[in-house]
């Protein structure tokens, strides 16, 4: 299947299944969609492009194959001179500098999901290990299948998770105790537990239904004012990371400019005339 023009990638299938909706599918099923450096760099580039592309208003992330959304970091590849590789030719400070830069590059590639101006919906299935949690934590909405199994696995390979889970997961779920329990032990948790703590918002029977639900929700968002939807994402993320007073001030400044858009008038008139509004590209 050919990727959408401008979204060519070796390890992802990128399609446009509905108007204004972009689907990004992780495509390394023989390796359980495990990530190595070219993959996260590609994902970051795809999300950065989608962020400013007026042809799309919502992004859905899925994964090929039935067994895993992603098994996380490809440890074998990372150990061969990659993220976990070491060099005996460098002193400790230079090793640390190289590692820090590499980790920051990895973080930025995954954070591109969170920074994408468009809402991002992820449909999780099967094994969701390590990087799967990092990636999903950056998404705005998370659906999963009833057979999904999750693990923040990094401690079992001798490291603390460093791509975003330890930063974002405590702000997503309602219990800091639960976050510490699963991250320090690397224990598995299932879809029901993920729903109970608030990590996901829907459980679907199987992968096909999870993907279908994610695409339907993306289409719903894509039919609304892109200024309103993208503004809502921006303001919610700002509220998460700032005080109430600062967020109210930021919201006032944001809407002082954005409320002047034609979308507001179109939406109000459509409501009065009981018709579906259409909105210009952003």
From TrEMBL:
GO cellular component terms listed in the entry, alphabetical order: mitochondrion; peroxisome
Keyword Isomerase: yes
Compartment(s) where it occurs, according to its Swiss-Prot or TrEMBL record: Peroxisome
Record Gene3D superfamilies: 2-enoyl-CoA Hydratase, Chain A, domain 1, Lyase 2-enoyl-coa Hydratase, Chain A, domain 2
SUPFAM superfamilies in UniProt: ClpP/crotonase
Stored InterPro entries: ClpP/crotonase-like_dom_sf (IPR029045), Ech1-like (IPR045002), Enoyl-CoA_hydra/iso (IPR001753), Enoyl-CoA_hydra_C (IPR014748)
Similarity comment text for this entry: Belongs to the enoyl-CoA hydratase/isomerase family.
Family annotation (PANTHER family): DELTA(3,5)-DELTA(2,4)-DIENOYL-COA ISOMERASE, MITOCHONDRIAL, ENOYL-COA HYDRATASE
Name this protein carries in UniProt: Enoyl-CoA hydratase/isomerase
Organism: Microdochium trichocladiopsis
């Amino acid at each position: 299947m050919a990727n959408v023009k401008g979204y060519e990638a070796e390890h992802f299938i990128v399609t446009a299944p509905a108007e204004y909706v972009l689907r990004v599918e992780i495509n390394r099923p023989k390796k359980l969609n495990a990530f190595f450096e070219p993959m996260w760099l590609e994902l970051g580039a795809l999300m950065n492009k989608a962020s400013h592309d007026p042809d799309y208003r919502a992004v859905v992330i899925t994964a090929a194959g039935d067994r895993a959304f992603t098994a996380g970091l490809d440890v074998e590849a990372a150990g061969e001179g990659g993220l976990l590789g070491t060099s005996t030719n460098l002193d400790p400070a230079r090793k640390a500098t190289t590692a820090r830069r590499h980790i920051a590059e990895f973080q930025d590639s995954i954070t591109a999901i969170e920074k994408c101006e468009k809402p991002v919906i992820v449909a999780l299935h099967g094994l969701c290990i390590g990087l799967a949690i990092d990636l999903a934590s950056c998404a705005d909405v998370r659906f999963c299948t009833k057979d999904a199994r999750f693990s923040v696995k990094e401690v079992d390979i001798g490291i603390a998770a460093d791509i975003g889970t330890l930063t974002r997961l405590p702000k997503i779920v309602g219990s800091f105790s639960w976050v510490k329990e699963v991250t320090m032990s690397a224990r598995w948790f299932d879809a029901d537990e993920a729903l109970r703590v608030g990590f996901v918002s829907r459980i679907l029977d199987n992968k096909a239904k999870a993907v279908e639900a994610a695409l339907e929700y993306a289409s719903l968002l894509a039919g609304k004012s892109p200024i309103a939807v993208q503004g809502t994402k921006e303001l919610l993320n700002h509220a998460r990371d700032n005080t109430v007073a600062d967020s109210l001030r930021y919201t006032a400044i944001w809407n002082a400019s954005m409320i002047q858009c034609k979308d507001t008038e179109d939406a109000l008139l459509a409501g009065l005339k009981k018709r579906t509004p259409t909105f210009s590209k952003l």
